[in-house]
Amino acid sequence: MSSGRSFYVTTPIFYVNDAPHIGHAYTEVAADMLARWHRQSGDDTWSLTGTDEHGEKILRTATANGTTPQEWADKLVRESWIPLLETIDISNDDFIRTTDERHEKNVQVFLQKLYDDGFIYSGEYSGLYCVGCEEFKPESEVVDGTGEFAGQKVCAIHSKPLERLEEKNYFFRMSDFSQRLLDLYEQNPEFVQPESARNEVIQFVRQGLNDLSISRSSFDWGVKVPWDDSHVVYVWFDALLNYITAVGYGQDDATFESRWPGMHLVGKDILRFHAVIWPAMLMAAGLPVPHRVFGHGWLLVGGEKMSKSKLTGIAPHEITDTFGSDAFRYYFMSAIHFGQDGSFSWEDLSARYQAELANGFGNLASRTLAMITRYYDGVVPAPAEYTEADLNVQRVVAEAVANADAAIEKIALHESLAAIWTVVEELNGYITVQEPWALAKDEANRERLNTVLYTVAEGLRALAVVLSPTIPKATTKLWTALGVEDSLGALTAQPIRSAGVWGQLVPGTTVGALEALFPRIETTNAE
Ligand code: MSP
């Protein structure tokens, strides 16, 4: 089922200094929704996630916990980051760790090439460094501390004191690339999205770029600089390369060429690394730049970016233990405009769960199957003549699928779900108007009842297909209950872009029982 299109999507690789919170899970789910959508469209899809394990931040955390950074990273990956993928039902194709040999070795290959080609030189550096960001901070992002840090310079993001570093470093000639980057943003407006992010990046590069310090010599937790092992590679330079070392860069050219370039989903706080430094690195190495870098917003709690260090972190399982992974995925993808910040609250989650998933979609599915069971012994009837109301359902379904796909192309994930939800609303409204329970009372209306129930069941078939990337568990249950495995094949094998073609459900199919897809929840548990 290959469409010949190749689609490679990545999440940022996560720092292993702490366990995941729902902000991290948010990026994971978005990338997974895209990957599942493309996979189900027949695109040659590859999705990558992983962990960022080097650098001073991890070293200090490990030391503070009385262990080595490698042991610390192994523990966090095993106990927190890999289990996260199951908690929120991620279907990633690969998981890269920056301590993998395939990564470390090829970071050195990349660096050596840049060195040999004259893009790296050695110099002295002095600047204010934020270990939280793992970055030298420009003046514009340095603010005066308050409270316990009064009188000190602190990072605008972390509100923690900056450290003055003075050392001999290797530098990457990033300043050479300002104009080429501006040309890239100009010629390919899709490269950085959304528009607000693009403008910010252009603004930044227009001021001119400095060369970038890409090595550290005051500690040794990192990839050794190949020509000078008293230095380790700067953690961001190392981390960004995961996107290519994971798909064969330096060791498997055929795989690399078939996958790269990909597209990156990142939080807006790390957009500049991906939209400025990363393409400059690739240009220097003579490699293609990514197709696209999409910067999403932050999850806010109490109006502030949710974060563990500010003690507002919520672990993903706190939500999934009560609501399940499908609800987690649906809620964050539908309730927040992808690309903008969004506030999380338990009340909103509970309310949407009940209104949209339980009453809107779940109920629609269970009562449709219950009516087919009651009135037709579970056998899907053949439709008779279609009326205008039935044809309208068909139009809504076809448009919803087309609009959802167009929204996915723009990475407007919330818009894609809003398009799909027009079908849920249309079908619920249709049932209310057609009153199949009233039709069932009179044998003379049998043909009409056939058409109405076929229409709803076929609408549900389409819904299962287009909702499967977002709520894979519930739609799999629905698919089984619809009894279509034999006639249509597995749910994940249904070509998503043609899900709106009417009439795929074969009359005569026997449906089964369906447990509540989204059972009622005692909200007191969740608050
Ligand atoms: N290790 C770097 C990324 C290297 S990529 C080559 C990093 N890691 S991180 O663990 O700090 O953050 C990973 C991602 O989580 C970022 O995209 C960041 O924006 C996202 N989030 C962290 N807190 C968040 C929210 N409160 N809301 C949404 N996303 C947030 O940066």
From TrEMBL:
Instruction: Extract the CDD domains matched here.
Output: Anticodon_Ia_Met (cd07957), MetRS_core (cd00814)
Q: What cellular component terms from Gene Ontology apply here?
A: cytoplasm
Domain of life per record: Bacteria
Catalysed conversion reaction: tRNA(Met) + L-methionine + ATP = L-methionyl-tRNA(Met) + AMP + diphosphate
Annotated TM spans: none
Cofactor(s) the record lists? Zn(2+)
Quaternary data: Monomer.
This protein is called what? Methionine--tRNA ligase
Q: Gene name on record? A: metG
